[in-house]
Amino acid sequence: MAETKPRDLAVLLLTLTVVTGVVDAVSFLGLGRVFVANMTGNVVFLGFAAAGETTLSVVASLTAVAAFLLGALAGGRLARVEEDHGVLRKATAAQALLVAVAVVLSATLGSGTRLGSELLIVVLGVAMGLQNAAVRRIGAPDLTTTVLTMTLTGFAADSKAAGGEGSHPLRKVVAVAAMLVGAFAGGMLQLHVAMWSALTLALVLVLGVLAVLQWNRPRDRSGPAADGE
């Protein structure tokens, strides 16, 4: 990975964190209390449903988990044949296509039918699985783009108050804020405008990340010369 790009990479991953907040707002508020990015939530929901909670859908949660795993599987295979930025670039391109499909589905079939909801869960789940697999390959600390539990744990456990070095506290705070902003924006659009508008916002953000990755592509391939800059 080129040494000149860590700050750029952090901005891209934070943007994808905003995307996560947006799509999970759409899925939870518009697709029947299910997450397409936060798989921990779905596993917990399955436990609640098994205990007798009737407002949660076992089918929706299982569909989301299966779709996410499919996307992560595809991202994992891609990671075996591409370098770090290549994985992220190609996974983001596929993610953009899938989110675009979700925009079309939400504007046509919508979530009013079971078929429409399940299709949206599948498409968005695959997209987020791809994103997570690509980001996992990069391994940027505290910028998983999906799971904030370890980020918050690190913020407290690694802080100077806990006797730690307090490394990158601002980045941890910004990561949490990015998810919050995404959830707020997605929730506002989902609740007060339309699902397709929230998904369009997610698409614009993903396309922005893809554009930056494409723009930096020649430098990714510059080899040893880049490392010596």
TrEMBL record:
The keyword DNA repair does not apply. Keywords: Membrane, Transmembrane, Transmembrane helix. Pfam families: DUF1275 (PF06912). InterPro entries: DUF1275 (IPR010699). It comes from the Bacteria. The chain crosses the membrane at residues 56-79, 91-109, 195-213. This is YoaK family protein. It comes from Amycolatopsis heterodermiae.
